[in-house]
């Protein structure tokens, strides 16, 4: 299939959630995916610290051995389950060839997750990041990762984001759906802003959740190795190993800023006010609270 046919195609709805065309075409494969009881699922809405968390968890699984964690690109160490480009790549196929215990990445909202994860009572880690920073980061990502449709102007993209007309649907539904689900399942729910503010404390939560013990100095090593500046320079974590046709880092690097509060550089006062109003409505009744800066 030539590049023209793969990139900048419109999203396709699966059960009311917009996703990439390839995923929609092969949806039955995703739906029937067989989780294993010792799978660890890393779930996020896009641009919420997925790669960061994946790198931390891979280091925990490898006892802090940073060389081992350079064995391959992050998207091969933690395959993106539902990402399928027919005839070219499939997260499902990739995972079938991975030995247990597997690390599995997903951006699916809770209602679309293959039921085998619930049946097997798999452990899951969810990271949520404040909506305004996600919107800004997602806009730049849409520009550089050409599997997405064209984002249009920032103004247009922000409207699409608020309406849930972006890949993986509504941020509001996504963070709330996973938040509710943690009452009944093995889900550790983390916040990007907490990870930024005190990475060591959040890594200790992960260790406890994963029932692993680690010496202080190994934890310190993981904190250092997964800091934004170190990861940005690490080809096995920063996506520079992908073909420029797929992700154009000259438009915007995959690892752009990695800070909290960058939305202030992008939102106009009017956009901010409109966003906050809409946010209040959509988050009404939820016990979920976010910090939009540290």
From TrEMBL:
GO MF term list: sulfotransferase activity
Record key words, sorted: Cytoplasm, Transferase
EC category: transferase
Residues of the Sulfotransferase domain: 37-286
InterPro entries: P-loop_NTPase, Sulfotransferase_dom
A single cellular component GO annotation: cytoplasm
Compartments reported by the entry: Cytoplasm
Pfam families: Sulfotransfer_1
Enzyme nomenclature, EC number: 2.8.2.-
Highest taxon of source: Eukaryota
PANTHER family hit by this protein: SULFOTRANSFERASE SULT
Family: Belongs to the sulfotransferase 1 family.
Protein name per UniProt: Sulfotransferase
Organism: Tupaia chinensis
């Amino acid at each position: 299939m030539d590049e023209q046919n793969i990139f900048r195609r419109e999203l396709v709805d699966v059960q009311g959630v917009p996703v990439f065309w390839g995923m929609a075409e092969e949806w039955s494969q995703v739906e029937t995916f067989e989780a294993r009881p010792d799978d660890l699922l890393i779930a996020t809405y896009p641009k919420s610290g997925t790669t960061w968390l994946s790198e931390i968890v891979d280091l925990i699984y490898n006892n802090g051995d940073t060389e081992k964690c350079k064995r391959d690109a992050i998207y091969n160490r933690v395959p993106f389950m539902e990402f399928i480009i027919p005839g070219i790549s499939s997260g499902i196929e990739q995972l079938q060839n991975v030995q247990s215990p597997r690390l599995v990445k997903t951006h699916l909202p809770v209602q679309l997750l293959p039921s085998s994860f619930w049946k097997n009572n798999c452990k899951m880690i969810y990271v949520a990041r404040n909506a305004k920073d996600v919107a800004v980061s997602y806009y730049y990502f849409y520009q550089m990762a050409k599997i997405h449709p064209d984002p249009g102007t920032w103004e247009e993209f922000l409207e699409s984001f608020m309406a849930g007309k972006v890949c993986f649907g509504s941020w509001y539904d996504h963070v709330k759906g996973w938040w509710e689900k943690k009452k009944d399942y093995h889900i550790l729910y983390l916040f990007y802003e907490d990870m930024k503010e005190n990475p060591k404390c959040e890594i200790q939560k992960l260790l406890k959740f994963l029932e692993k013990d680690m010496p202080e100095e190994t934890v310190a090593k993981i904190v250092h190795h997964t800091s934004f500046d170190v990861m940005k320079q690490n080809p096995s974590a920063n996506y520079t190993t992908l073909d420029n046709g797929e992700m154009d880092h000259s438009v915007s690097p995959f690892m752009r800023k990695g800070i909290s509060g960058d939305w202030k550089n992008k939102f106009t006062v009017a956009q901010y006010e409109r966003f906050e109003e809409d946010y209040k409505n959509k988050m009404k009744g939820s016990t979920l609270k976010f910090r939009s800066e540290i």
